[in-house]
Amino acid sequence: MPELPEVETVRRGLTRLVVGRKVLGTEVRWEKTISGMAPEEFDAELVGRTIEKVDRRGKYLLFRFSGGLTMVSHLRMEGAYYTVPAGTEPGKHDLVTFHLDEGIDLFYRDTRKFGRMNLVPDADALQVAGLAKIGPEPTEKDLSLAYMVSEFGKSRMHVKPFLLDQSHIAGLGNIYVDETLWQSQIHPLTAANKLTEDELARLRENIIHEITRATEHHGTTVHSFTTAFGEAGEFQNELQVYGRVGEPCLRCGHPLEKMKVAQRGTTYCPVCQVVKD
Q1: What is the dotted CATH code of the domain comprising 2-122?
Q2: CA 247, CA 261: separation in Å to the nearest integer?
Q3: Tens of pLDDT along 152-197?
Q4: pTM for this structure?
Q5: CATH code assigned to 143-266
Q6: Is residue 112 annotated as involved in ligand binding?
């Protein structure tokens, strides 16, 4: 699933490619992609509107259309946007086409068909399921240490699933949680409320730094992620623990191990990351 750096990379690409373009029409080839309305209604609502801006909140894209309408788009596992010349024949997995002016079509491709789009008034965008209770963005400005001390202190949940829960911190997924826990020398099965303020300060710093670095490298391509320009991300070359099971820990040299935590494959160092009692 694309995480915050990948979704932000897509947002930046779409800003360059489609902002300012007018919608001439839409075609929906997989009706479940559009939540809460029929394809005909979706088309009628969008025709004639201009894409004024593309925002992001956590792992969600928010297409801001003229006339006070927002399309909330969640890419889920393998959703992707890319532009093609108008009239290009859609492929098998191109589920939605946005016909734009100036000879451009915007395709939404999703091989797993899990992605969803919700078209709502601007004022309701942040109330769409998944966004209503989303946590702060992992930035210096939004994610304070005081918040983390309070939030983590309330929960006995293992820290890995705690971080994967978007209601605590927005945008983190399996890759960046494994990376930042290793960097912070925190075992994934440590209870959230067992972490000291110093450990949380280190974790906060690593989360902010890692997300920033990953975004600068246009995200991580492990399976199928591509930017809006059809290019792979570059951060997979910078990963320190994710995908390196059996290889030596870059800190202590012990072979990295893998286990399941909250049904997610989790790579960690059994020497550097020790469970706290």
Answers
A1: 3.20.190.10
A2: 20
A3: 999 999 999 999 999 999 999 999 999 999 999 999 999 999 999 9
A4: 0.90
A5: 1.10.8.50
A6: yes
